[in-house]
Write a structure and sequence with these properties.
about 300 residues, alpha/beta, D-Maltodextrin-Binding Protein, domain 2, about 20% strand, DNA-binding, HTH-type transcriptional regulator GltC, transcription, HTH-type_LysR_regulators
């Protein structure tokens, strides 16, 4: 029979890393520990539990139902431990605690200028770990407890993910103000078939949304250029070489200065996309993190109503 005293933090970290990496070898490489040691400890714990925790497959492992429950327990225990350590640091006046944030590239400037700068003025001892990632990478990182907060564009609904705030941020065609379509009230995908296009890679939520819009309208977009960063898309639109597709908050400064124009897409799916501020469901928050979530919700442009 297993008691809570049998479940030490080291075992929980080992097991959670195995689940996250999808293999014992991958976890061993990440933790710099012999794979045999991790395998032995998990195997011994499975014997004490009386049930398998991992399903061994040819190319790795996946958690069983009991293993998934243990992984959830591990995340909560590790988060509680970090929360307690952050409390001790604040008590000793060392720092307010470390906050881990994953966000899509389009949120970077908005997050830093409108949330992190004002937050750090009143929480001078807080520290941050900032990660830039694609939509699904952000969702996975939040779900697996690798980050505390995620800012994602049009993420899928998933069990275990809580949306703190969301705002409709429709997809627009982004182009030079001198482009023939720049003054239109809206534009259809079919109007852009013969126009040079710059599109993001599949890791971006924008690309997944565009595929749904294409499927609903029966139009296939063939990009002249595919880009791995939104900054490249922005620069290509500024140069006039190509038209791209972005929510307006990602090019706010260029729209404000008149360097770019944003024309709403007429297709319904394009108008249904939203920006989401997400955390893991039942995530226990320490006070500075709660304050930061409030600032992000109220000040970051991506989470304000879409003017279009």
């Amino acid at each position: 029979m297993v008691t809570t005293w049998d479940i030490d933090t080291r075992l929980l970290r080992y097991f959670l890393t195995v689940v996250t990496e999808g293999s014992i070898r991958g976890a061993a490489d990440k933790l710099n520990i012999a794979a045999s040691a991790i395998s032995r400890q998990i195997g011994e714990f499975e014997v004490r539990c009386g049930t398998p925790l991992l399903e061994r497959r040819p190319r790795g492992v996946v958690p069983t139902q009991a293993g998934a429950a243990l992984a959830d327990y591990a995340r909560m225990q590790i988060e509680d431990g970090e929360r307690f350590l952050n409390y001790l640091r604040r008590l000793r006046g060392l720092q307010d605690g470390a906050i881990r944030i994953a966000c899509g590239e389009g949120f970077n400037g908005d997050l830093i200028e409108n949330a992190l700068v004002p937050f750090m003025q009143t929480h001078k001892k807080s520290t941050f770990h900032l990660i830039q990632a694609g939509t699904m990478e952000i969702v996975d990182a939040v779900l697996e407890g690798r980050v505390d907060i995620g800012l994602a564009y049009d993420p899928p609904r998933m069990v275990g993910i809580q949306s703190v705030v969301s705002a409709r941020q429709s997809l627009h065609a982004i182009m030079q103000p001198s482009h023939p379509l720049a003054q239109a009230s809206q534009v259809h995908l079919k109007d852009l078939v013969d126009v040079p296009l710059a599109l993001p890679t599949d890791s971006y939520g924008i690309r997944a949304l565009l595929r749904r819009v294409e499927a609903s309208s029966g139009v296939l977009l063939v990009p002249s250029i595919q880009c791995a960063t939104l900054d490249m898309l922005r620069r290509l639109a500024l140069s006039g070489v190509a038209v791209t597709f972005l929510p307006p908050f990602t090019v706010f400064h260029e729209l404000t200065t008149g360097e770019l124009a944003a024309v709403p897409l007429a297709e319904p799916f394009a108008g249904e996309a939203s920006a989401h501020l997400i955390i893991r469901s039942q995530r226990r928050l320490f006070t500075p993190m709660e304050h930061l979530l409030g600032i992000i919700s109220s000040r970051v442009r991506a989470f304000q109503p879409d003017p279009s």
